[in-house]
Amino acid sequence: MKKLFASILILTSIQLSKAQELETILLASEDASLLTQNYLNPALEGLMYSMNGGWANTAKVHKAFGFDLTIGANLAFVPDESQFFAFNQGDYQFISLPNGENDLPTVMSENDAETEVEITIPVGDGTFKVASFDMPGGITEDLPASAVPAPTVQVGFGLPFKTDIKARFVPNISVDDDFESGLIGFGLQHDLTQYFGPLDKLPLSVSILGAFTSMKVTYKIADENISDAVAVDNGEAEFKMNTWTIQALASLDFKIITFYGSVGYNNGKTTAKMKGDYTLTYDLEDGSGNQIGTVDETISDPINLDFEANGVRATIGTRLNLAFFKIFADYTFQEYNTASLGIAFSFR
């Protein structure tokens, strides 16, 4: 089972592990943060939407002390317009694109081609620090269905007063000492049908759900190319994601099949940090473009970014009921539309 969890987290984290190729962006000085944010934004937004999926596949809650185990996956589909970001020269101080591109691929682009970026930084005495690097392309071909995945491994337990408590927990798992990832989440689902009088005799169930999820991914940035212009010491990329959702659910629960849906709101926040010490090497040129030497500059913990994703959501889905064994699939309409599917073992 631990290998299964590790495999799920590898798929979840692979889009973030691209950060190991981002250390050369640090040559862009003050422009590095904006360039990194534009590049990573679709993956992190998609992951936050994906993390809020799969919390319920029926509005019907357990009887007291009933429980379920659910294993599944959520796939957030990146909108076409988020596969690229506009490169506006006026937004940057020191970088330029020598080939005149107007758009650059994000990490979630189908275009995996690298883009050359040139850097010219005035020193202040008539000389300039000069360098170049290749901006990485997209990685969607490495992801299932070209979407941002998130695992769903959770248990639900029936409490008195027709309320379910839900928990998601994947322990910290290290893979090849390169990255570590873990997830934890909690939710409450409360039945509202009980307050509607005779409606509780129908197959219709109505409930309200609130849930919170936290995930952390760390990835070592190795100095794989000692001949490039960036030397890395104790490099690490760290991503911390917190999301919450509130939803009103309704379902028609029959013996063999369940139809369910919900409307609600999502919110998510992520911090992304690039930690460690980085020594940057620039060519030093005079005002005529003649190289007159090189210069080194060391920076520490250079990247600290914030990302947000929020908005309304609406879900439709169905579940096949085979005694205590359930198979479900649903689709959520939101900024990053999300498909959820999985299996559940439920005992009322």
Short account of what is shown:
This protein has 348 residues and is mainly beta. The protein is 10% helix and 56% strand.
Total strands = 16
Number of domains: 1
How many strands, which pairing sense, and closed or not: the largest β-sheet? 10 strands, antiparallel, barrel
Number of helices: 2
Question: Secondary-structure element order, as H and E?
Answer: HHEEEEEEEEEEEEEEEE
Structural class estimated from helices and strands: mainly beta
β-strand percent reads over 45%
Mean pLDDT: 88
Strand order of the largest sheet: 1-7-8-9-10-11-12-14-15-16
Straight-line distance between termini: 25 Å
Shape: elongated
Radius of gyration: 24 Å
Amount of helix: 10-25%
| pLDDT < 50 runs, ≥5 residues | 1-12, 14-20
What keywords describe this structure?
single chain; 348 residues; two-stranded antiparallel sheet; 2 helices
Characterise the protein shown here.
- With 348 residues, this protein is mostly beta strands.
- The protein has one domain.
- The chain is 10% helix and 56% strand.
- It has helices at 2-17, 32-51; strands at 67-77, 84-86, 95-96, 103-105, 115-122, 128-135, 147-159, 163-175, 179-191, 204-221, 230-253, 257-285, 291-300, 303-322, 325-333, 338-347.
- The protein has a ten-stranded antiparallel barrel.
- Strand 8 and strand 9 (179-191) form a beta hairpin.
- The radius of gyration is 24 Å and the shape is elongated.
- 42% of the residues are buried.
- Residues 1-12 and 14-20 have low confidence and may be disordered.
